[in-house]
Amino acid sequence: MALLLMEAMPEKNDRVTKMIIDSKQKLSDGYQKLTTFETDTGGYEWFGESPGHEALTAYGLMQFNEMKKVLGEVDQGMIDRTTDWILGKRDGKGGFNMNSHGLDSFGSPPPDLSDAYILWVLTSIGKDIDLEKEIKKNIEKAKAQGDS
């Protein structure tokens, strides 16, 4: 919500300016907290313990890219490292290798859904990444399932 507010509202008066300053501070505090969940082996996990969680890391990547639009402090090196970590999880067949021992393994979404979510994030962050194989596989899967 704070991101939308800061992107949409021009700084016109003292009240709006104060609201934007307060929102930026809260966003900055949240950003600092989120960075503590990066694991030693790459990616992000619910409590910052290795191994990283692929879909959660993709969600974090999307959030960090959005935060960067309004916060100057978002570390581009961290964004690049996180992007590289996710790309390193590609399985070579158009999907992504998922950690089967993640904390949400009891209720994990089907692999096709996780693959589609991660692909959506990677295509949304504004980087020039060759995802042709992943896009093709997702289109084929969607057509085969009849819910596209």
TrEMBL record:
Domain called Alpha-macroglobulin-like TED: residue spans: 21-101
InterPro entries registered for this protein in UniProt: Alpha-macroglobulin_TED, Terpenoid_cyclase/PrenylTrfase
Gene Ontology cellular component terms for the protein in this record: extracellular space
TM helices/strands, residue ranges: none
Protein name per its UniProtKB record: Alpha-macroglobulin-like TED domain-containing protein
